Amino acid sequence: MREVGSEKDEDEMTDKHMTTVSQHYFVDESDKSSFSIAIIENMKEEYGLFVWPCSVILAEYVWQQRYRFSGANVVELGAGTSLPGLVAAKVGSNVTLTDDSNRIEVLKNMRRVCEMNKLNSFDDLFATITYLLQSSPGSVFITTYHNRSGHHLIEFLMVKWGLKCVKLVDGFSFLPHYKARELNGNIQLAEIVLNHESPEETSTSTVR
Predict the structure, then answer these.
(1) Is residue 14 part of a domain?
(2) Which residues form a coiled coil (predicted)?
(3) Whole-number pLDDT of residue 5
């Protein structure tokens, strides 16, 4: 007779062997924009924990229609591994992921995937920035960020939280050569303030 504990350990080891992380790439050479989405999959599960072909196709459609989805409110029903919803979030949509509330392992995996792709912290960060700027009129938030995949998301969140960028410069443009040669990547420096324009004024200026 096997002990209960050993059976549990054996099941956990099996789950580990069945779990993998797949990478899904979205590239457009014409405008040099690209990013990748990492998805945690478990082939032991029947439905919610692996990427279905339909999901890959829908995610690619969202990517190719990204300007349509930028700034849109999106709800992914039965999201599972959430690939299409994560792509939508990367291109600037305000995304809500949903699935069966009884599938706890699927919901937990959705949170882990969001964390892995750094899609759960930006909203909280911008809410904090807005609060601090509102508490200190005339203040400026100055930050640097590595421009890899979140550029469209950052633009959307600035609009969502009533912020605007008043200065955006290449991080290497003012760096001494002896410091710049030790770094790499596309690093931007941004100065962000509260946007005091009304929504009507903002939309009008965008159209021009």
Answers:
(1) no
(2) none
(3) 53
